[in-house]
Write a structure and sequence with these properties.
This protein is mainly alpha-helical and 282 residues long. The protein has a domain of 191 residues: Orthogonal Bundle (ABC transporter involved in vitamin B12 uptake, BtuC), CATH 1.10.3470.10. Helix content is 82%, strand content 0%. The protein contains twelve helices and no strands. Helix 3 runs antiparallel to helix 9, helix 10 runs parallel beside helix 12 and helix 11 packs across helix 12. It is globular and about 80 Å long.
Length: 282
């Protein structure tokens, strides 16, 4: 536990744990709403905010955070304009964000050097301000998911029925999109812009695959994300590898091993049932 003697590792574990719990819950809702690519899209949009902040001499974390929220609002408007082809909104906003980031980076070549921390994540990138920002987002997200847990459940599985029941679907969807932007922007210092979707999608993908119920999926996703982030940060420190890539690789291994174990258990269960049938016939 030598690594926990360092302040930057303490901040990284604290920030990673907070974001892991929040992002994993968000991931379950996004996957069930078939919006898994939304996190990836918003991470690319926030890159434009980071580039703008670096170019204008403003804190890139703050500008990335604000632009991610604006992107989340815009994508909700575009999604409603293309109801039949909702994935078009993801492509449109992603193209806009990436092109803006590339142009701003090209205008000032000196800002490229500091971008690796935002692109791939770094434990040393988590400062006190970012940690406080993550905790604030976690508090807001926790309150949102607790207060709107029942309406969100209905909207996730059947938006039209939720409207018929009188739920404010439009307002809740906007709030959900804004929260998604906030969580994506807050997760950037840990796993980076390019890998932020791994923290949101991979634990949820495993949980939805193996969980017997919606509530179980939320808990499995949270535990998987928490163990994955802590294991990834530890491996990153011991092996001197990039934290974002290491965390994403650990979560990917969890998903592969989890699916493998599930298939093995099902196969053994079928074999056991077959043996019992044969024994009953004899």
């Amino acid at each position: 536990m030598e690594m926990l003697h360092y302040d930057f590792m303490q901040r990284a574990f604290c920030a990673g744990g907070v974001i892991a719990l929040l992002a994993s819950v968000l991931g379950v809702y996004l996957m069930l709403r078939r919006q898994a690519l939304m996190a990836d899209m918003l991470s690319h949009v926030s890159l434009a905010g980071v580039a703008a902040g670096a170019y204008l001499g403003i804190n890139p974390t703050i500008t990335g955070f604000i632009v991610a929220i604006i992107g989340a609002i815009i994508v909700e408007y575009v999604r409603r304009s293309y109801k039949t082809y909702s994935e078009i909104s993801v492509a449109i906003i992603m193209v806009g964000g990436l092109s803006t980031a590339v142009i701003l980076m090209n205008l000032n070549q000196s800002i490229n050097k500091g971008f690796s921390a935002y692109l791939f994540g770094s434990v040393v990138a988590v400062n006190q301000t970012e940690l406080m920002l993550m905790i604030a987002v976690a508090v807001i997200g926790g309150i949102f998911f607790f207060v709107f847990r029942r309406p969100l459940y209905q909207i996730t599985f059947d938006e039209e029925t939720a409207k018929t029941n009188g739920l404010p679907v439009k307002s809740i969807s906007f709030a959900f999109s804004i929260l998604t932007g906030m969580i994506v922007a807050a997760a950037m210092p840990i796993v980076g812009v390019l890998l932020v979707s791994s923290l949101i999608v991979l634990p949820a993908a495993l949980a939805i695959r193996i969980a017997p119920s919606f509530a179980a999926a939320i808990w499995i996703s949270m535990v998987t994300a928490l163990i994955g982030v802590f294991s990834g940060l530890t491996a990153s420190y011991e092996l001197s590898t990039p934290p974002g890539g290491t965390i994403a690789m650990v979560l990917l291994l969890f998903l592969i091993v989890g699916i493998g174990i599930q298939k093995l258990v099902r196969k053994l269960g079928k074999q056991q049932a077959s043996r019992q049938k044969n024994a009953a016939r004899q």
